[in-house]
Amino acid sequence: MEIIEVHTKSRPSTVYCGEGAAQAASEYLRGAQAFVVTDTNVSRLYADTISRLFPGAPACVLPAGERHKNRTGLFTILGKMLDAQLHRPSVVVAFGGGVIGDMAGLAAALYMRGTRLVQMPTTLLAQVDSSVGGKTAVDYRGVKNVVGAFYQPERVFCDPVFLNTLPAREVRCGLGEIVKTGLLDEKVGAKIRENADKLHELAFLQELAADCIRFKAGVVERDETESSGLRKCLNLGHTTGHALELLCGRRSHGEYVLIGLWLESFIAEGEGVCEPSYAQEVRSLVLRALPRIPRFPNAAEGLRFALLDKKNAGSGVSFILPKSRGAYAELTLPPERYAHYLNILAEERQ
Amino acid sequence: MEIIEVHTKSRPSTVYCGEGAAQAASEYLRGAQAFVVTDTNVSRLYADTISRLFPGAPACVLPAGERHKNRTGLFTILGKMLDAQLHRPSVVVAFGGGVIGDMAGLAAALYMRGTRLVQMPTTLLAQVDSSVGGKTAVDYRGVKNVVGAFYQPERVFCDPVFLNTLPAREVRCGLGEIVKTGLLDEKVGAKIRENADKLHELAFLQELAADCIRFKAGVVERDETESSGLRKCLNLGHTTGHALELLCGRRSHGEYVLIGLWLESFIAEGEGVCEPSYAQEVRSLVLRALPRIPRFPNAAEGLRFALLDKKNAGSGVSFILPKSRGAYAELTLPPERYAHYLNILAEERQ
Asked: Which of B11, B190, B237, B280 could, after both became Cys, cross-link B261 (CB 3.0–4.6 A)?
């Protein structure tokens, strides 16, 4: 089991990654007043595991799915916390994927102005990305993550045992953030290129998970609240990814990130941010993870959502674009120019 | 105009206190994208002032009153912030009393995980206490301030010009926190004793305001998030005050604090925390601010609310009690023992 420390200004956070992490969580919380937040999918598979790991802890089971990441879900958790008579020293355990981590994390941040928080991610996406770094949020009025807080979990326990039950779609979802990390961090990038044929094997993805967390921890330590600009690099592929996610909303977050990376490689190339050969390399890598980029006949409408995004203060649309292996660049485009690129997604492809 | 720096870990905060503070706010925000949150009472009196101080800034006017400090109010603000297309560098201006400061502060903390925040308190209570220190919250399911965050305003502008239109009830409300501060800080305490006959004169209260802010700033700097225990001292009188406020809810927060201080002087005396003569001094001081302590026939029911309070982890009820001039002590009572004291409020008095 690997132990990764995240030294942020607000509070230290420690990530346990590997076999045995679930048991370590159980031992860590022995004697504490734990409160488990999970969803119907996870509960169906792991209700017994939860009872065994956290005996006697009350649980709040939310309906599964991204579309429930809203204020109703948030206040359902807060209400159950009141029912359970939690206080500040109580520990919220976010047991599930990214949606549960985001919502339970925000509830922990807000209840009595902050309880203790432990993340126990059960999906590849949550293990390699969203459980680390303290971003919590719910969507509101069609805008993703617009109501939230930076709130570091004191511990994150990433146990690969939960990945065995993941549907292929959820694995692809995690792949989105792994491929993104590979473009930002050349250590991860080289490993992916050298093992591109293993990109759908859980054993290899588990190995990458710790590398991804280590990279993200380094970024978050230097820019916890996205104020210096460094943390923005983690949004590679996300401007388009988020816009399409809001426009269509059927695929997983990670798939939209992959589609975003694919499209934004054309922007990087077209705007002279990277060489055409590197843009091609990026697209090939994306296609290893997601063999077919779907067609979006109404892609240009995504512009509306991109303009609402919190990264896009002012009148343009901002991107973090791939520049070369392990390097990125920031670019802001006028809306109409971005619409032109979005149309690539609307074109017929063979 | 006095300038008081509050050096907290999360972010520095500066308080401007005195004539001209409103104009200073206007100058400070020139060129920024300001967004004003206020209520119907304040707007009726100061709509023109707001337009003059912050020309062109969109405003969100909430219904006035403590009972609107809830999630509906919070999401009304967040929705209007989306309508106004605010981004992180935008500035929320909380223009009003404690309720507006708490709600607008929480909205600023949550919108896009945090925008800029300026507090512009217009009541005595907000000027001497609630606008400083970064506590933000809404009530939920009958529990006061149970959903909130610590979020420091970058600037607080306390201009006495707004106090001239305050109804007597609102002045008494501020007096609650001033008297409380006088019991915790002997510098303020001595000033109050020496000028007890001026306790309802605005000029004197304005003079005390800066002293109160300076004292609170010192406490908040040393314990921003109530983790070391020091900040809890600010809850003197509040255990009973909050419980009665939730039970009855007709008087102002500050009046309940005064009633709480009065009752808790009996607890301090009865439990041997202070000398009877000092308990008598505390009650005399309270009666200078609030000449008549009302009778609460159902006072014992307040116990239920006291047990829900976030300060009362575990099975007892915790108090910060007056010990001697400028000194306090913490005490936890079994619920039934507290109920016994609460009955003092139910007794007939002449």
From this structure: B237
